[in-house]
């Protein structure tokens, strides 16, 4: 049966996509914003390349 893989399966088979952020909550929040900005840019570049 096909479906969305569990998080454990994703991290098990794609360790290069695992990001760990350590620090105070404010620093982690800023890090998350920066990481998501880069992920969004990479996704948009991939979509544009496929068009």
Automatic annotation (TrEMBL):
Species of origin: Chloebia gouldiae (Gouldian finch)
Phylogenetic lineage: Eukaryota, Metazoa, Chordata, Craniata, Vertebrata
GO MF annotations, alphabetized: RNA binding
The protein's name: Uncharacterized protein
InterPro entries per UniProt: KH_dom_type_1_sf (IPR036612)
Superkingdom in the source lineage: Eukaryota
């Amino acid at each position: 049966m096909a479906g969305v893989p569990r998080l454990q399966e994703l991290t098990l088979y794609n360790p290069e996509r695992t990001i760990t952020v350590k620090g105070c909550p404010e620093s982690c929040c800023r890090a998350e914003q920066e990481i998501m900005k880069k992920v969004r840019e990479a996704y948009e570049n991939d979509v544009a390349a496929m068009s």
